[in-house]
Amino acid sequence: MPVQKVLVVGGGITGSVLSLALARRGVDVDLVEISPQWFGVGHGITLQGNALKALRAVGVLERVLERAVPFDRMRLRRADGGLITELLTPHTGGPDLPSTAGALRSDLQDALCDAVYAHGVQVRLGVSVERFDQSAGWVDVTFTDGTRGRYDLMVGADGINSAMRRLIGLSARPRPVGMSIFRVVAERPAEMDCAEVYYGGPRFKAGYSPISADRCYAYLLDENLDTSLVGPRAPLTLLRERGAGYGGTWGEVTAALPDDTAVDYRWIEAVLVDEPWHRGRAMVVGDAAHACPPLIAQGAAMCMEDAVLLAELVTGDEPLERALDHFMCRRLPRVGMVLRNSLQLAEWEIHPGTPGADPARIMSETLESLTAAA
User: Fold this and answer.
1) Which of 125, 174, 297, 366 is the most exposed place for a label (fewest CB within 10 A)?
2) 116-132 pLDDT, tens digit each
3) H, E, C per residue of the chain
């Protein structure tokens, strides 16, 4: 029997897409988000074709593309800005969609939030799950505000540091990859028409992507610095110091940043739950189940694919247990491949000159394999 009432825990990209996908299939959805405010924050995001395909499946693609910047290539540059090569990027979402689009995370999340409300999802902010009990037929949930609910399925979509993963008894934990990332949103130069990556400088690499008509997202991949720096307000002077040695458009973008620019700095972590993501009628998806370094720009796409496929399978004719097993058979090999290849790229970035290193081949093979249906 298809599920009729589902609890989604976490209102980020994964939880929002899942809530929409379920609601559009007639499911009664409750969405709880621990933050008391629900809106898009943060830097830019790269949405490859398979992510755009998922957004189309839940009806928000047109709105996202109104402000996003589609492009079908990326350029590799030397640290001084000189061109190495230009690569066409595969259409992982099919030939009728852009191969890539850069977007502001707030634009994407705002579109998802509005659609979630418009489709009748019951959203509760400042609330999460305290505990749950389940039987063969349902999950009884006690929330942190003392209220309770009964559901056919409970899905944790609460990110890489998922509390739901621990709550349902999954042992996987995030681990540092060995690199960190500075991120800023900046003014977009007129000549910036696609993503570009700078190699051969003093850090692992630098890059940027256009994300709106007048904004771009710039980043610097570095070694892990002191943990006291981690957060949304790292010093701009530190970004400039660590990025000294990169010229071209990247150097111009960072030099023009206002002194009050918000610089987000994070250690990059990875996690993979390599066992079933469900325990009975409780499960996790998205970054709570798998999160990888951003070197192939597939993190958001993998999360959205989870959401769309899960909604399809649990509203089908199969019993829930069989539907969840089917889901795992389709998702684990795919996300595992993306994670392994992303970690391999990170290893080669950290240890340049490794014999046999071939990042271009790994990236090309990964994206080509993702042109197959999720």
Assistant:
1) 125
2) 999 999 999 999 999 99
3) CCCCEEEEECCCHHHHHHHHHHHCCCCEEEEEECCCCCCCCCCEEEEEHHHHHHHHHCCCHHHHHHHCEEECEEEEEECCCCEEEEEECCCCCCCCCCCEEEEEHHHHHHHHHHHHHHCCCEEEECCCEEEEEECCCCEEEEECCCCEEEECEEEECCCCCCHHHHHCCCCCCCEEEEEEEEEEEEECCCCCCCEEEEECCCCCEEEEEECCCCEEEEEEEECCCCHHHCEEEECHHHHHHHHCCCCHHHHHHHHCCCCCCCEEEEEEEEEECCCCCEECCEEECHHHCEECCCCCCCHHHHHHHHHHHHHHHHCCCCCHHHHHHHHHHHHHHHHHHHHHHHHHHHHHHHCCCCCCCCHHHHHHHHHHHCCCCC
pLDDT of residue 324: 97
Q: What is the pTM assigned to this prediction? A: 0.96
**Per DSSP, what are the bridge partners of residue 148?**
142
State the amino acid at position 273 in one-letter form: V
Q: Identify the bridge partners of residue 217 per DSSP, sorted by sequence position.
A: 185, 209
CA distances from 154 to 94, 121, 132 (A): 32, 15, 9
Beta pairing class for 153-156 and 175-187: unpaired
Angle between helices 359-369 and 320-350 (to 10 degrees): 160
Identify the pLDDT of residue 363: 87
CB neighbours of residue 190 within 10 Å: 6
Cα 331 to the center of its chain, rounded Å: 15
Q: What local confidence, expressed as pLDDT, does residue 38 receive?
A: 85
Distance of alpha carbon 73 from alpha carbon 83, whole angstroms? 14
Q: What is the rounded distance in angstroms from the CA atom of residue 304 to the CA atom of residue 22?
A: 13
Reported as half-sphere exposure (CB side, CA atoms, 13 A), residue 101 has a value of: 29
Half-sphere exposure at residue 115, Cβ-oriented, CA atoms within 13 angstroms: 28
**Angle formed by the axes of helices 13-23 and 49-57, to 10°?**
40
Phi-psi region of 273 (alpha: psi -120 to 50; beta: other; left: phi over 0): beta
Q: What are the residue ranges in the chain where pLDDT is below 70? A: 40-41
Answer whether 243's CB lies under 8 Å from 256's CB: no
Please give the Cα distance from 217 to 210 (Å, whole number).
6
